[in-house]
Design brief:
By secondary structure, the chain is mainly alpha-helical. Helix content is 70%, strand content 4%.
């Protein structure tokens, strides 16, 4: 055990009752509601549960440290976190792409030209000044080749 890890020991219910009596009138807030006074038995159970959860979390953290600590100067946990976030976002992105494809198909079924809709979406993304410049340039090119 390193100095940064908390010291947790097994606590019997009798020890928990003693600890709860020492707290003298401790109370617990339930789901952000009003404080509810507890008797010694309730307080003892809360302490026993709390200690048990703390021990389980400490054991879980020890397992994670051995499997994903720094390896060759690379922080394994942090790298894994980035990779998992990217994978999750990629899945979400694919889901959104499928939804957009469905909307285009729906608009086509309603009689709209999908190519024109795509062009309008592209134009709407542009700044008004940029859109105006592009339209002027397009008109100039059309005139240069005799299309206007």
């Amino acid at each position: 055990m390193t100095s940064t890890e908390p010291h947790i020991k097994n606590v019997s219910k009798a020890e928990a009752i003693k600890a709860s009596k020492a707290l003298k009138g401790a109370s617990a807030s339930i789901n952000g509601g009003p404080e509810v006074p507890m008797d010694s038995e309730d307080e003892a159970q809360v302490i026993v549960d709390f200690v048990a959860k703390g021990q389980a979390a400490t054991e879980k953290n020890k397992d994670m440290k051995t499997s994903a600590d720094d390896v060759g100067g690379v922080a394994g946990k942090r790298l894994r976190s980035f990779i998992e976030r990217i994978e999750r976002l990629t899945e979400e992105k694919q889901g959104l792409a499928d939804d957009i494809k469905d909307v285009y198909a729906e608009s086509k079924g309603a009689g709209f030209d999908v190519k024109t809709i795509r062009k309008l979406i592209r134009l709407r993304k542009m700044e008004p000044e940029k859109r105006r410049e592009e339209a002027e340039l397009e008109e100039l090119y059309k005139a240069a080749i005799g299309m206007s």
